[in-house]
């Protein structure tokens, strides 16, 4: 069994939330992005900004999280598991962000019909 197989959806959401909210004012920026909507390219740029160069956190009994803006990579794991491969990377991180935060894509013509 791999490290990723031991993670739940809630674990991945926690890792994503912690990774994309590590800078002051992140919640307000995400709320504004939900209001305005973002194309995939704009959302990728927003994620690079929020992930920064690299970061992470862990603690006894908690989920270990690491992230980097280059490649939009997020790693997560429990104590004793290596943090590879990433649980989210590239286009999967963009899609996850769109779903998690509920950010509309203004270039999606189909959505405007609803």
Q: Main β-sheet: number of strands, strand sense, barrel status?
A: 3 strands, antiparallel
Average pLDDT, rounded to a whole number, is: 89
Number of strands: 3
The stretches of 5 or more residues where confidence is low (pLDDT under 50) are none
Shape: elongated
Largest sheet, spatial ordering of strands: 1-2-3
Computed CA radius of gyration, to the nearest angstrom: 15 Å
Helix and strand sequence: HHHEEEHH
- Put simply, the count of helices is 5
Helix/strand/pairing class, anyone? alpha+beta
The percent range for strand residues is: 5-15%
**End-to-end separation:** 42 Å
| Helix percentage range | 40-55%
Structural write-up:
The chain has helices at 9-20, 26-36, 40-51, 91-101, 109-112; strands spanning 55-57, 64-68, 73-77. The protein has 114 residues and is α+β, with helices and mostly antiparallel strands. The protein is built from 5 helices and 3 strands, in the order H-H-H-E-E-E-H-H.
Any key phrases for this structure?
114 residues; alpha+beta; three-stranded antiparallel beta sheet; 11% strand
SSE blueprint:
Blueprint: H1 9-20, H2 26-36, H3 40-51, E1 55-57, E2 64-68, E3 73-77, H4 91-101, H5 109-112
Antiparallel strand pairs: 1-2, 2-3
Helix pairs in contact: 3-4
């Amino acid at each position: 069994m791999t490290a990723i197989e031991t993670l739940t959806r809630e674990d991945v959401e926690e890792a994503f939330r912690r990774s994309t909210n590590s800078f002051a004012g992140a919640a307000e920026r995400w709320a504004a992005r939900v209001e305005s909507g973002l194309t995939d390219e704009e959302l990728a740029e927003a994620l690079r900004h929020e992930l920064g160069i690299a970061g992470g956190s862990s603690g006894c009994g908690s989920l270990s999280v690491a992230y980097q803006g280059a490649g939009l990579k997020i790693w997560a794991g429990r104590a004793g598991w290596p943090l590879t491969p990433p649980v989210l990377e590239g286009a999967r991180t963009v899609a996850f962000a769109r779903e998690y935060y509920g950010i509309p894509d203004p270039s999606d013509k189909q959505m405007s019909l609803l």
